[in-house]
């Protein structure tokens, strides 16, 4: 049951993060002008991600209910109506359903705000709900900032992969400079909000013992993010004449994205572990 919950958390977090980031970076990297081939591909991917999010979101609810007393309808209703998780999850699933419906209509302009709200409602789930009162609200707000930064980075990398598949059609140097410019803000937000989370949840600058439990998985996550930063810096330093070395650039962006996927997997496991207060 615990393994299924971790896998479900990973899938759900991953698809919601990617949806938000890809939708957010599309106008920033390519402007408002239509790009028919890319837009069709991005719409197909977004619809698939939205359905995966809905399915994994419902599965997450059923797994939580089963861990309490069983997956019968009465237990699910109890979780939805009487627990903090259930109340948040009711809103979350409603937003997910609205996003799915909007993607089946011409109202594509709704996908960014709905995906942002969907991502934000993941903040109170897990460790974000550990504290109450003002401190709890500030922790949730910090977690929202963290999730938005992560989502923008990972979804933006996914969009870059799609762009690089047809590199000859796009001004790569301009696009990469735009991505790098926003990347500085995202990395700063990611690091600051992450350090705040660690300090608040563990009561320390870094949890101990270092090589066990929560601290070990957190260390793995940090190393994966450091690898992403290293690749991003390398690509930034080699941005000039990037149009002539699309192959290595594409491989580097894919590897950076895969490291991000692995970091999200680590976070999915972290959410099920006590932060050793």
Helix content: over 70%
Order of helices and strands: HHHHHHHHH
Proportion of residues in extended strands: under 5%
Chain oligomer state: single chain
How many domains is the backbone divided into?
A: 1
Tally the helices. Answer: 9
Radius of gyration: 19 Å
The overall average pLDDT, rounded, is 85
How many extended strands?
0
Find the structural class using helix and strand composition.
Answer: mainly alpha
Global outline: globular
Low-confidence segments, ≥5 residues, pLDDT <50?
A: none
Q: Report how far apart the termini are.
A: 25 Å
Largest sheet: none
Summarize the structure.
Helices cover 78% and strands 0% of the residues.
Structure commentary:
The structure is a single chain. With 277 residues, the protein is mainly α. It has one domain. It contains 9 helices and no strands. It has helices at residues 2-30, 36-68, 73-82, 84-103, 111-120, 133-164, 172-202, 213-237, 246-270. One of its GO terms (biological process) is copper ion transport. One of its GO terms (cellular component) is plasma membrane. Involved in copper resistance. Keywords: Cell inner membrane, Cell membrane, Copper, Membrane, Transmembrane, Transmembrane helix.
Topology at a glance:
Blueprint: H1 2-30, H2 36-68, H3 73-82, H4 84-103, H5 111-120, H6 133-164, H7 172-202, H8 213-237, H9 246-270
Helix pairs in contact: 1-2, 1-5, 1-6, 1-7, 1-9, 2-4, 3-4, 4-5, 6-7, 6-9, 8-9
């Amino acid at each position: 049951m615990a393994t299924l919950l971790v896998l479900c958390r990973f899938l759900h977090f991953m698809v919601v993060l990617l949806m938000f980031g890809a939708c957010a970076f599309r106008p920033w990297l390519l402007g408002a002008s239509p790009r028919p081939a890319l837009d069709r591909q991005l719409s197909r991917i977004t619809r698939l991600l939205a359905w995966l999010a809905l399915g994994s979101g419902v599965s997450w609810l059923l797994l939580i209910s089963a861990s309490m007393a069983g997956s019968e309808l009465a237990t699910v209703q109890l979780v939805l109506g009487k627990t903090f998780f259930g109340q948040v999850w009711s809103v979350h699933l409603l937003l997910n359903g609205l996003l799915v419906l909007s993607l089946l209509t011409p109202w594509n302009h709704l996908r960014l705000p709905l995906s942002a709200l969907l991502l934000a409602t993941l903040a109170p789930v897990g460790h974000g709900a550990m504290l109450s009162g003002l401190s709890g609200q500030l922790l949730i707000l910090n977690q929202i900032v963290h999730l938005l930064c992560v989502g923008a980075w990972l979804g933006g990398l996914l969009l870059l992969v799609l762009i690089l598949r047809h590199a000859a059609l796009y001004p790569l140097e301009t696009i990469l400079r735009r991505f790098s410019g926003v990347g500085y803000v995202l990395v700063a937000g990611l690091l600051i909000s992450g350090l705040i989370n660690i300090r608040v949840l563990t009561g320390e600058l870094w949890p101990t013992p270092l090589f066990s439990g929560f601290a070990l998985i957190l260390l793995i996550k940090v190393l994966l993010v450091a690898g992403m930063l290293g690749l991003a810096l390398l690509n930034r330093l080699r941005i000039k004449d990037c149009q002539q070395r699309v192959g290595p650039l594409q491989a580097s962006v894919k590897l950076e994205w895969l490291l991000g996927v692995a970091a999200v997997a680590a976070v999915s496991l972290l959410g099920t572990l006590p932060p050793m207060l």
